Amino acid sequence: MDLKDLVKQWFDKWEKGDFLNLPISENFKHTSPFGIIEGKKAYTNLIEENKDKFLGYEFEIHDVIYESNKACVRYTAKQGQEFSLDVSEWYYAKDNLIEQIIAYYHVGEIRDERKIQNYNN
């Protein structure tokens, strides 16, 4: 399976809520602003315990870059009418499975001391 098909399968499984059959290795590692999750079992257990936050998304893919064993995808994840999240993720593959994902997104309000003055004036 080529990487393009693997990434497509990842998004298809998420949209169907089929997180137990994600194309990830047993040694899967997911890094995000929330921290690092190591292992397929730990990852699927986290999803199981937090289904309301992980399931029910639709994805609008904006950009994709593929290389031989890694890809970068920029997308918007939408959960119902109320929530959307802009994300950029790096996918690393090995032996036809996703071995690692590094996700970038904003998870909250910007602290006052980090705000840029007169930015949108």
Structure commentary:
Helix content is 23%, strand content 44%. With 121 residues, it is α+β, with helices and mostly antiparallel strands. A hairpin with a 3-residue loop joins strand 3 and strand 4.
Whole-angstrom Rg: 16 Å
Read across the widest sheet, the strand sequence of neighbours is 2-1-6-5-4-3
Oligomer: single chain
- By secondary-structure content and strand pairing, the structural class works out as alpha+beta
Terminal Cα separation, in Å?
49 Å
CATH architecture: Roll
Q: Enumerate the spans where pLDDT stays under 50 for 5 or more consecutive residues.
A: none
Shape: globular
CATH domain topology:
Nuclear Transport Factor 2, Chain: A
Number of domains: 1
What is the tally of beta strands? 6
Helix content: 10-25%
Number of H- or I-type helical stretches? 3
Strand content: 35-45%
Task: Let me know the average pLDDT.
Answer: 92
CATH class membership:
Alpha Beta
**Mind describing the biggest β-sheet?**
6 strands, mixed
**Order of helix and strand elements from N to C terminus:** HEEHHEEEE
Task: Summarize the topology.
Elements: H1 3-16, E1 24-32, E2 35-38, H2 40-49, H3 51-54, E3 57-66, E4 70-79, E5 83-94, E6 97-104
Parallel strand pairs: 1-6
Antiparallel strand pairs: 1-2, 3-4, 4-5, 5-6
Could you write a compact summary of the structure shown?
With 121 residues, the chain is an alpha+beta fold. The chain has helices spanning 3-16, 40-49, 51-54; strands spanning 24-32, 35-38, 57-66, 70-79, 83-94, 97-104.
